[in-house]
Amino acid sequence: MRRALTVLCLGALTASGLALGGPAIAAPAEQASPTAAAAVPDELVVGYVAGASETDRGRARGRSGAVRQERVVRASADRTEVELVRLPAGRDRDAAITELESDPAVAYAEPNWIYTHAARPNAKPGSGAPTPVDYFANGSLWGMYGDASTPPKTFGSQAAEAWAAGHTGSRAVHVGVIDEGIQVDHPDLKANIWTNPGDSTFDRVDNDGNGLVDDVHGWDFANGDSSVYDGGNRGSLDDHGTHVAGTIGAVNESSTAVPGAGQVGVVGVNQKVTLISGKFLGRNGGSLAAAVQAVDYFTALDARGTDVVATNNSWGGGGYSKALEDAIRRADVQGVLFIAAAGNSGTDNDTTASYPSNYDLPNVIAVAAIDSAGKLASFSQYGATTVDLGAPGVGIWSTTAYSGWSSYSGTSMATPHVTGGAALYKAATPGATATQIKAALLASAVPTESLKGNTVTGGRLDVSGF
Question: Rounded to whole angstroms, how far apart are CA atoms 313 and 318?
Fold first, then answer.
């Protein structure tokens, strides 16, 4: 078995991400062959051996005619230099990789994989709902309900049970959303959006000295700027990231712990939490280089004193990447969980690996999707040894761009329920380590027939005890 129950692991979304809408819509399968998977043309990510000098790196690049584009990872005591390089147009990629890896300064060279999701909302993307309604009271938020909630729902996350016991989260707990951007002024989210205490204003100065100017609410690694919400033409841009964020931590506007009178819109697993945007997916997806930078951003934030309990990763694609695996391992050393969607191709991750959820690291938690009847969603990937547990992922209402709300389906939607559970546990048990949080999530999973033999735990998310 790849992981024991006490080990942290969550599955990643396929190259096509999630399927959205009322009925489950199966997304195209992730490419089983790395050579067939999508990558940025004429670009490679190159990792060097420890101690490789600029002269060494220049010699290695020269073997294939590659030109350095940017540094992805700066060499330090615990990591080696990683660069993004561009090949001459039309250069054979595999031949260039072989030439680079023949140089003694090069540890590995790999394609700059493209990661994506495919969103299909019920309504027009970006339009949200025609009028604000109370989605909790009208029965739409089944993923938040519990056995004894009103309305009751056995297969929900039981978040309402936790709220009734007084566990509604804490803004002292920080969660990274590695995805599209987040609409930071969405009425259901703005109270829970992070403002960088070291760089709190858009004054064009890198006040906290981290090399990123005005990372007030996070950073856009897709475009290299501080605007984590781009909106743009009405469409899916930043809908997905905003939807994920709402499931983790949309606020409760009512005066009672369990949403009552005065609640408009949706509520997340955590009514109080701090959400940080690590945008790396743009309209055409995101690159491996940007993904690595986003993961390292949250690891660095945690190291500098911002307590990041976990990152949510509802995306996937490409093949195995040493650069990304190393970045996730650095997050593990720092104590940051990496919670990822299992994927939407309906296939077995034990047989065909799906990245990033299949990285065999202690901080990874892989998540499958179930529907409101407790069945494994038709699109959900699974794996008896590689996917940890199931969570609500069909017909999930949450926040979307332009201050709207939409219903989506996919392992993308199941994953933030689990990330929300990690944050809820951390709020109730502030001293808990990543290992302890993962163990609690997996140990509390409720046995579910559809998940027996399809996940490590054989069960579904239950946060009622958090």
Answer: 15
Alpha carbon 175 to its chain centroid, in Å, reads: 10
Distance of CA 282 to the CA centre of its chain: 14
Residue 400: count other Cβ atoms within 10 Å of its Cβ. 29
The C-alpha torsion from 436 through 440 and 441 to 444, rounded to 10°, is 170
**Side-chain half-sphere exposure of 48, counting CA atoms within 13 A:** 26
Q: How many CB atoms lie within 10 A of CB 39?
A: 21
Kindly name the residue from 64, 157, 412, 464 that is annotated as catalytic.
412
Q: Identify which of 357, 416, 379 has the alpha carbon closest to the alpha carbon of residue 10.
A: 357
Instruction: Identify whether 412 is a catalytic site residue.
Output: yes
Q: How many angstroms from the chain centroid is the CA of residue 4?
A: 22
Cis preceding-peptide flag for 152 (omega within 30 of 0): no
Q: 389-392 and 396-400: which strand pairing? A: unpaired
Token pair belonging to 119 = 């969103």
Residue 330: CB partners within 8 Å, gap ≥ 6?
78, 79, 295, 296, 299
Average pLDDT over residues 184-206: 95
User: Residue 317 — φ and ψ, nearest 5°?
Assistant: 140, 180
Q: Which two tokens stand for residue 465?
A: 């005890």
240 in active site? yes
Q: Give the Å distances, CA to CA, from 194 to 165, 179, 431.
A: 26, 16, 21
pLDDT in tens, 300-309: 999 999 999 9
Cis peptide before 151 (omega within 30 of 0): yes
pLDDT of residue 4: 38
At residue 131, the pLDDT reads 67
- Work out the pLDDT band at 36, boundaries 50, 70, 90: low
Q: Which of 117, 186, 217, 240 is catalytic?
A: 240
Quick one: tokens of 311?
Answer: 């990152």
Question: What are the beta bridge partners of residue 76?
Answer: 79
User: Quick one: DSSP state of residue 443?
Assistant: H
3-state SS class at 88: coil
Global pTM reads 0.91
Catalogue all structural domains in the chain, each as residue range(s) with its CATH number. 39-114 (3.30.70.80), 142-460 (3.40.50.200)
Distances (CA, A) of 413 to 302, 320, 406: 25, 23, 12
Catalytic-labelled residue, pool 134, 179, 220, 371: 179
